[in-house]
């Protein structure tokens, strides 16, 4: 049950997010037959962040919108990533915080044994802070879940 050293799904999601213009990263993911997308979201509401990532994943056929288990796996990966962004408390507007985030979603098989199945990773990077321009700082989060 060893992870494939060349295809770490969380690392791939972070590199895609932080180096979106890196053509080698896009080629590597495509050659591995992994599916991915990127996007941006800004909000004072955590549910809007979840909705933006879910919508992008569905619109880009990263997950099958008709299969509950795929949406469920994506949801948990998003929430785990949001825990990193919000330092453990997935609250924004109710505690006067807002985020401006870029995100990536990557789906693939990170294990050497293909019977381990597919996994999904969500990475979030951007700013978080009080809803006052200039009162924010950088933040990052990563969530990984099996499908």
TrEMBL record:
One of its GO terms (molecular function) is mRNA binding. The keyword Transcription applies. InterPro entries: Regulatory_HutP, Regulatory_HutP_bacillales, Regulatory_HutP_sf. It comes from the Bacteria. GO terms for biological process: L-histidine metabolic process; positive regulation of gene expression. Transmembrane segments: none annotated. It holds the Pfam family HutP. Keywords: Activator, Histidine metabolism, RNA-binding, Transcription, Transcription regulation. The keyword Transcription applies. Homohexamer. Antiterminator that binds to cis-acting regulatory sequences on the mRNA in the presence of histidine, thereby suppressing transcription termination and activating the hut operon for histidine utilization. Belongs to the HutP family. This is Hut operon positive regulatory protein.
């Amino acid at each position: 049950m060893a992870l494939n050293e060349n295809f770490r799904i969380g690392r791939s999601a972070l590199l895609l997010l932080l180096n979106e213009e890196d053509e080698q990263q896009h080629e590597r993911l495509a050659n591995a037959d992994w599916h991915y997308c990127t996007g941006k979201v800004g909000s004072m509401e955590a549910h809007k962040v979840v909705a933006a990532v879910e919508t992008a994943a569905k619109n880009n056929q990263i997950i099958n919108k008709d299969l509950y288990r795929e949406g469920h796996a994506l949801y948990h990966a998003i929430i785990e990533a949001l825990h990193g962004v919000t330092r453990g408390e997935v609250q924004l507007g109710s505690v006067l915080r807002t985020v401006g985030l870029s995100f990536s979603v990557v789906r693939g098989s990170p294990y050497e044994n293909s019977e381990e199945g597919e996994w999904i990773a969500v990475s979030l990077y951007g700013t978080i802070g009080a809803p006052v321009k200039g009162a924010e700082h950088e933040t990052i989060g990563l969530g990984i879940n099996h499908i």
